[in-house]
Predict the structure.
Amino acid sequence: MGSLYKDEQDDWITVCLKYLLFVFNFLFWMGGGVVMGVGIWTLVDKGEYLSLLASSTFAVSAYILILAGGLVMVTGFLGCCAVIREQRSCLSTYFSCLLLIFLIELVAGVLAYVYYQALSEELKQHLSKTMTENYAQPGKDSITQSVDRLQQDFKCCGSNNSFDWMHSVYIMSKAAESRLVPDSCCKTITPQCGKRDHPSNIYKVEGGCITKLEQFLADHLLIIGAVGIGVACLQLIGAVLTACFIYLLYKEEEEDFSDV
């Protein structure tokens, strides 16, 4: 009688765990879509600013999230199939995939956090040099477009302030046509509006574009890190549930074998 009750209890636990895993995998699949979406959003939303950064860590973090998100969606679907079929081999493969994706997303989260700590110093060292030396220079069209977009989007002028442009290669060249700042510094862009640097005509922002871009990238990096580490922790729960389910299936197989 006790043995029969124990078998029924084990069956009940297995069924509950099975449905719990199925629900988890559905949520896991949806989470993969969110992770991929965050990675794509990071690259698409003002992604042209990446050419202004000295390192590629920011972009790498986003690409890792997109890769992990895609793997999560595929793994979530496979996990649902493995749970329905109750095959230990499929579940073991699914468990291994969970651990692999966990490591990938953890790396993305850590990269985002490490880069977040070094972001301010990188921008101070690199952005000013990029804007003054490469703006409107031959073969630097992408940087020129990025700087113009940066100044218009964030309503700023110069890396620290508008006077930074006085030392730029572009402003000191004939191509500037006596401009004091690029036209993208103007509140309302008109041909050669950069010849007048009065606050009523151009953006005068304390801290310049460095402060604005730093805040923008920092916000994105925090989201990347939070999503990466958050989903990674969720996967640990899935891995524990999967391991328990595999163990129960193994016990059932052993009991069936001993009965024979």
